[in-house]
Amino acid sequence: MFLTVKSTPKVRVAAMAGLLAALAGCSKNEEVVAPTVANEALTTTILTLTNTANPTDVQTATWEQLLDSKGNPLTPDVSKANLNLTANANYTGQLGILDKSQTPTFDVGNEIATQRANYHHVFYQPLPTNQPLMIPAPTGTGADIYPAPIPTPLPTSPPLNLTVTTTDVDTNTPALPLGFKTTFKTGAASTGYLRVVLRHQPNVKDGTFAPGSTDLDVGFNVSIK
């Protein structure tokens, strides 16, 4: 079951009543509980980028929200949620999602990619941007704000010169994007943010953001030099 916190990390609760007893069902109740997928907590999101022209240029950014002794989420740790990229370069990207509340650590991302790809889709939104938003902007009221470390309100300019393209697909017919594997293309020097959202879309996945509901919503600082 995907149960999530709608707070600074903004991991929202998904709802699919017909699947509560099946694979990775969701609930819309906004409870202060750890984000979970099939009883695994989504504690740690890791984005690893490797420069295709320089394999020694490997950038790893981590967004993490661990749990206290009672299983409640602690304040998100965004101290390592930073990407320092080379201008006018191409990177291959790999997204990881872990559950560090288990011993040993459980690889939730691998489970989604290998067993649940047909009803999940990861979206990437460079910010600020002068292009149409792939992920709708939050309203900026109440709990509907950008996930840390992205500020609300968000600066509108200058744009972050970054393009993210999904390269992996599921086994739907026709195949649809998944989003754990990507390519990142940087332009001129700029700074901004990257928002990463995991959508849960059973029976409604169509390659767009709108269907379904959000399971994970995290942010990263981006510097292109």
- What coarse outline follows from CA principal-axis ratios? globular
Question: Helical content, roughly?
Answer: under 10%
- What is the N-to-C order of secondary-structure elements (H for helix, E for strand)? EEEEEEEHEEEEE
Total E-strand runs: 12
Please mark out the parts with pLDDT under 50 across 5 or more consecutive residues, or reply none.
1-33
Strand composition percent: 25-35%
* Count of DSSP H/I helices: 1
Please give a structural write-up.
This protein is mainly beta and 225 residues long. The protein is built from one helix and twelve strands; from the N terminus they run E-E-E-E-E-E-E-H-E-E-E-E-E. Strand 1 (36-37) and strand 2 (40-41) form a beta hairpin. It has one helix at 108-115, and strands at residues 36-37, 40-41, 44-51, 58-64, 82-85, 90-99, 106-107, 120-127, 162-166, 181-186, 190-200, 213-224. The strands form three sheets. Strands 3, 4, 6, 7, 9 and 10 form a six-stranded antiparallel sheet that branches. It has a four-stranded mixed sheet with strand order 5-12-11-8, with no helix packed on it. The termini are far apart.
What topology emerges from the helices and strands here?
Layout: E1 36-37, E2 40-41, E3 44-51, E4 58-64, E5 82-85, E6 90-99, E7 106-107, H1 108-115, E8 120-127, E9 162-166, E10 181-186, E11 190-200, E12 213-224
Parallel strand pairs: 5-12
Antiparallel strand pairs: 1-2, 3-4, 3-6, 6-7, 6-10, 8-11, 9-10, 11-12
Descriptors for this entry?
mainly beta, 4% helix, 225 residues, disordered N terminus, 1 helix
Provide a compact summary of the structure.
With 225 residues, the chain is mainly β. It has one helix and twelve strands.
